[in-house]
Design brief:
The complex is a heterodimer of chains A (153) and B (920). Chain A has five helices and six strands; from the N terminus they run αββααβββαβα. Chain A has 153 residues and is of the alpha+beta class. Chain A has a six-stranded mixed beta sheet with strand order 1-6-5-4-3-2, sandwiched between helices. Chain A starts with a helix and ends with a helix. With 920 residues, chain B is an all-alpha fold. Chain B is built from 47 helices and two strands. In chain B, strands 1-2 form a two-stranded antiparallel ribbon. In chain B, helix 42 packs antiparallel against helix 43. The chains are: A alpha+beta (153), B mainly alpha (920). Chains A and B meet through strand 2, helix 2, helix 3 and helix 4 of A and helix 11, helix 13, helix 17, helix 18 and helix 19 of B.
């Protein structure tokens, strides 16, 4: 239902990737997700976001676009952030990627993890899948996300 | 074919032809109506009846479906491939794959229909009938060799069977006629190229794999994947310079990837052996770098710091290998920077240093802790580092208090720096066991910034470490109300409520975010929210509600069954998408996914429940009315006690039943007012209190327990808990060899560390061997003669008959794992070392020594006194561990009371133990 209130944002990928880095530093391992990360990603999602998915949906992403899932893993092997992204099947607006879900644990804020995860996924959308732009849904009330997508990136 | 009964007139025939499509569109009721229509005029048309059966099955009318499907087979004289295929589909929908495969085979004997072949192949790979799968794939390729997916599919089948050469040959043939068309096609081809590299790597053909990557570089669109793979291969080949170059390129793209740092460090150290490292583990972390290598590494990271000024990883990593003044300098700038930026996780990134410095055993069994093994050099190195960090930050605090400046700075810092210094130091002190000091700081921070949610979380953790679970839960709840839109703090608060035993409150809090009022539990189950299910299960278990506990643990187990089922749709999907590397990853993941910590935690919880049902039959066991204690054989005092106990148990049960009935009635009442709609139309939960489940499980708890144990032994063999659970179940079932085998496996895991001296092993192994030697078990739970918590420690004697052959096997195994000498003597020596000597600081070994001694010499009262003599400065968790032990083993009241007083003196915030609370 919150989807209804969501607004869609689109932004250009090209040329902006090398933009000014806002990220202030990250002390976690940022890498592509593997199959072994999915259970932990689901758990991270359930801990911090109201939109949740069954494991099958995570399988669907990694089996369709293995390059578009990234995780942030802390020193204690815990997944503290992730991005779950896909290529949109609707080609009417041109080839583009879509962010299904992005989350960072509250304990790991201020490290620029969201920015870094987004950049990584965007780079692969562009390089591997030739995406022209990326779309996503943000709840109106989510200021932090709004700032990230309109300002930082 | 010629059977006239099976031929329909044109009109019915056209209706019949539409059935398959309607069924596919999930219009089951319509299919049912149409088939009934045809059957009215042609009651003997078997294939129509088959479709009716399929629709019935989809509508969950299973019995009718099977009856109809069988009848259809008879009517078609077993000669219709459609009837067989549909019968197979019905079996498949019930996950009975073995029967489904049989039906498909019958169908294929009558027809070479492609769809049936495909369906057969899916089930074969699903149940890992690899040989069958390879055969089916071969047939499919032979029939339609124009399809690329059939080539890749056959190659995959050969790969899975281990026939790498055939797999490569087939794949090469397929690569030969691949041409690029559009973007999507380019991607698919790129994935197939990379799949070939995977195959080459797995056969050990590393050089050809590198050559292939080079040759097809322009056609592989996954550029990062290409570089990562090539760098990894070069490293494995010992081509350090080339690999280093690639890792540098990758670090330019992502300087925060520890995979790349790991690779680069391996190149610098000229070491190929990094395959055992993962996550944030690095080769430099073991404090074994010598002069030249250390210098090289330090120089490298100094360069990185300039090259990647924004990357924190390059500044955090040197803290793992620098020492002395160099460490202090690096740490100083790292800490100042983090504190000025207000990074909440600053302390958490240093926690590994603390863990190594403390090198302590985790006493609490939660699903987040893992065993920690630290070498001595690493431990002392980390102790020095932690001391430096402490000194630095304490210095910041002092300086800020006096001048609002950091040491050596001329400018005043923003007030938030003071806040984050308090926040950091509170965690530092907490980690070192100084909860009082930690609380002082966090309270000061809270006075400074009462709305910062993070502070409440840390305060709650400190309180938890001080044993004040309820206060901790209150603090988390206070923090939660400050930011109602934050689901993370909501989850944390809920977890703390559950840990504090406030189950209803915990569930209510979680429900605030699970949008479907009235059916939060259904939602959480549907979304596979396992952290919650495990915490809730544990909470119910602590309150003796084993039915609810098992309901939650079973739910977790079911999620893993579902993960396994989830594969089904992807077997053909991936052969269309050609994401073969991921697909192979999924096939392999599913075979080990039950090794996941969530599964292990749920399995362990369930085993604990079953053991309690077994050990406390009076309260939990079946047919309590029949199981009258044998009063005749008892002394008067025993009789009196037994009757009182029975009365008490009966009262408790009655009270519980009444409460449950009242709750159910209330629920019913509420339902009347407002029909509870279940989340996504889940079927009604007909057992909301877990009582029905409990009835079915408590009949034979050990049977259920051994089923779970079998699964964890298979999937989580590297987990010590697995083998300890296996032992506890086996010994109660009287399976001596099985019990010993479990301990043998446990010792193998601990081989390089404590071996048989590991507390969890020693306290079981030595008494067990003693019982075998003596020909009698005297520990009531192991003898199966315990009926309640209280009489777990009563004196029993259950004679053991051990055949000479078994005895010999046991002796041989015992000798092999290093048991030399009589168990009694070994127990005594261990006791002298870890329990009688009060200066020994290892609480786990102290408890183990006392437990073993109690089992070996039940009349000895010394263990109770010695176990209670904890060294000064012991942590709450050590106290709590001992407290549980005293309670479990029926310590004399005076010893327990004295211990409780000592605990309360050391940790005044701690919740009093249940027994002492009762006495008051």
């Amino acid at each position: 239902l919150q989807e209804a209130a969501a607004r869609q944002q689109q932004q250009q990928v090209g040329g902006r990737l090398g933009g000014r880095a806002h990220a202030r530093g990250r002390m976690v391992n940022i890498r592509r997700a593997t199959l072994d990360d999915l259970v932990a990603m689901q758990s991270t999602n359930l801990h911090c976001l109201p939109e949740n998915y069954q494991m099958k949906y995570y399988f669907y992403h990694i089996l369709s676009w293995p390059q578009l899932l990234y995780v942030a893993e802390d020193y204690n092997h815990k997944i503290v952030g992730y991005v779950l992204a896909k290529m949109d099947e609707d080609l009417s607006k041109g080839l583009h990627g879509h962010i299904t879900s992005l989350a960072v644990l509250r304990t790991h804020r201020k490290l620029g993890l969201a920015t870094k995860l987004m950049r990584a996924a965007q780079k692969d959308m562009e390089e591997t899948f030739r995406a022209k732009f990326v779309s996503l849904h943000v709840r109106h009330s989510n200021y932090a996300a709004f700032h990230l997508y309109t300002g930082t990136l | 074919m010629a059977d006239p009964v099976q031929v329909l007139p044109a009109k019915e025939q056209s209706v019949f032809r539409s059935l398959a499509k309607l069924q596919e569109q999930k219009q089951y009721k319509k299919v049912l109506k149409l088939t009934d229509g045809i059957l009215k005029s042609h009651p003997n048309h078997g294939e129509t009846l088959s479709f009716k059966a399929l629709a019935l099955s989809s509508l969950k009318r299973k019995d009718e479906a099977y009856a109809a499907a069988k009848m259809a087979l008879i009517k078609t004289k077993m000669r219709s491939y459609v009837a067989w295929h549909i019968f197979g589909l019905i079996y498949r929908s019930d996950r009975n794959y073995a029967e489904a495969i049989k039906c498909y085979r019958k169908a294929l004997a009558l027809s070479d229909n492609q769809q049936i072949l495909k369906d057969l192949s899916i089930l074969q790979i699903q149940i890992r009938d690899l040989k069958g799968y390879a055969e089916t794939r071969k047939t499919m390729l032979a029939k339609t060799s124009t399809q690329r997916s059939n080539w890749v599919g056959f190659s995959l089948a050969q790969h899975m069977c281990g026939n790498y050469n055939v797999a490569l040959l087939i794949l090469d043939t397929c690569l030969g006629f691949m041409r690029s068309h559009n973007d999507r096609d380019l991607y698919e081809q790129s994935e197939i190229f990379l799949y070939k590299v995977m195959l080459l790597e797995e056969t050990g053909a590393l050089e050809p794999a590198v050559a292939f990557l080079d040759a097809f570089e322009s056609r592989i669109v996954d550029k990062i994947g290409w570089r990562e793979k090539k760098a990894q291969l070069l490293l494995a080949l010992g081509k350090f310079d080339e690999a280093k170059e690639l890792y540098n390129t990758l670090l330019d793209i992502n300087p925060e990837s520890f995979d790349y740092h790991r690779g680069l460090q391996a190149c610098l150290l000229q070491s190929k052996s990094i395959s055992s490292l993962s996550g944030c583990q690095l080769p430099v972390q073991d404090d074994r770098l010598d002069g030249a290598k250390l210098d090289a590494m330090a120089t490298c990271y100094k360069d990185f710091a300039e090259k990647y000024p924004k990357a924190f990883a390059v500044r955090r990593i040197p803290l793992d290998f620098l020492s002395g003044a160099a460490f202090e300098q690096q740490a100083d700038s790292f800490l100042r920077d983090g504190l000025r930026k207000g990074i909440p996780s600053l302390f958490s990134t240093l926690r590994p240093l603390y863990k190594k410095a403390l090198g302590r055993r985790e006493l609490t069994e939660t699903y987040f802790t893992k065993g920690l093994t630290v070498s001595d050099s690493s431990q002392s190195g980390c102790q020095a580092r932690v001391a430096t960090v402490g000194k630095l930050v304490e210095g910041y605090l002092k300086s800020l208090r006096e001048t609002s400046k950091l040491p050596g700075c001329n400018e005043e810092e923003a007030p938030t720096v003071f806040l984050w210094v308090l926040y950091f130091l509170a965690q530092h002190r907490d980690m070192l066991g100084d909860q009082d000091g930690a609380l002082k700081l966090i309270d000061e921070a809270l006075k400074h910034s009462p709305t910062l949610v993070d502070l409440y979380h840390v305060k709650g953790r400190i309180l938890k470490h001080a044993g004040a679970l309820e206060t901790a839960a209150d603090v988390l709840e206070e923090g939660r109300t400050l930011d109602l839109a934050d689901k993370w703090i909501n989850s944390k608060s809920a977890k703390f409520q559950l840990r504090a035993g406030r189950i209803k409150k915990g569930e209510d809090i979680v429900a605030l975010f699970t949008k479907h009022e009235g059916d939060s539990r259904g939602y959480l189950m549907d979304m596979q929210c396992m952290w919650f299910e495990i915490e809730a299960g544990m909470a119910y278990m602590r309150q003796d509600d084993l039915g609810m506990a098992l309901k939650f643990f079973k739910s977790v187990e079911k999620h893993f069954d579902d993960f396994e089922q989830d594969q089904l749709d992807f077997h053909t999907y991936c052969l269309r998408k050609f994401t073969m590397r991921s697909y192979v990853g999924m096939l392999r993941l599913i075979e080990r996914v039950r090794g996941d910590r969530f599964f292990a935690a749920a399995a362990h919880g369930a085993v604990l429940c079953y053991l309690r049902i077994h050990d406390e039959k009076a309260l939990f066991g079946p047919n309590q009315d029949d199981a009258e204690p044998d009063l005749a054989s008892m002394t008067a005092a025993e009789r009196k006690r037994a009757k009182a106990k029975a009365r008490k148990a009966e009262q408790k049960r009655k009270k519980e039943e009444e409460e449950k009935a009242a709750a159910a009635a209330k629920q019913q009442e509420e339902k009347k007012d407002k029909p509870v709609k279940r989340w996504r139309d889940l079927p009604e939960d007909d057992d909301p209190t877990g009582t029905k489940l409990f009835e079915t499980l408590r009949e034979d708890p050990l049977k259920h327990a051994s089923e779970i144990v079998r699964a964890v032994v298979k999937f989580a063999p590297n987990n010590l808990q697995t083998h300890i659970d296996a032992f506890e179940v086996a010994v109660r079932r009287g399976k001596l060899l099985q019990a010993l085998r479990a301990l043998y496996a446990a010792v193998q895991l601990e081989k390089d560390h404590d071996g048989i001296e590991h507390p969890d092993i020693f306290s079981r192994l030595i008494p067990f061997l003693h019982f075998v030697q003596n020909g009698a078990i005297t520990y009531a739970p192991w003898a199966g003669m315990s009926t309640s918590k209280e009489d777990k420690n009563k004196q029993v004697t259950k004679p053991l008959t051990v055949s000479p052959v078994a005895k010999e096997v046991i002796d041989t195994i015992a000798a092999e794992i290093g048991v030399s000498g009589a168990p009694l003597d070994l127990g005594k020596a261990y006791y002298a070392k870890f329990a009688a000597d009060h200066s020994s600081g290892d609480a786990a070994k102290r408890v183990a020594a006392c437990k073993a001694q109690l089992l070996l010499v039940p009349s000895d009262a010394a263990p109770f006194k010695d176990v209670a003599a904890l060294p000064s400065g012991a942590r709450f968790e050590a106290f709590d561990f001992v407290r549980t032990f005293l309670l479990e083993h029926g310590a004399p009241a005076d010893v327990s009371a004295a211990f409780e007083a000592k605990l309360q003196a050391a940790f005044p915030r701690a919740v009093p133990s249940q027994s002492s609370a009762k006495e008051e």
